[in-house]
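USER:
I wish I could look at a protein chain and see how it folds. I am handing you a single protein, as its sequence and its fold in token form. As I understand it, each token names a local backbone shape. I hope you can help me see how the letters and the tokens relate. The protein I mean follows directly.
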Amino acid sequence: MKLIKTATGKTKLKLTTSEWESIGKKMGWRMASSELEMGIGVEKEHKDIYEELKGKFGDEFPWTLDEFAERVAKAHLKEFKDYYSRLKKMEDMAKKDKKAS
């Protein structure tokens, strides 16, 4: 855990994945690091949205692409602890159905 300064001079807290998991457990969230890692990778697919937001807010936009993807992934994992495993199964089934048709 460390405090970092943003380009605009604001201070924010930077946590590692294990620190997030520890906090999550204390708050009743069940978030496996493998799900979080998978989620960050998936959410990075939305780089176009990240770039659009960064373009609109410039230096005021507080997150890197990794931080943005991590925040989105954590939001999904609060709803369903296996969100990205479910997403992968759904995508695999869709690919299988597409090949069959």
Observations:
- Strands lie at 2-5, 11-14.
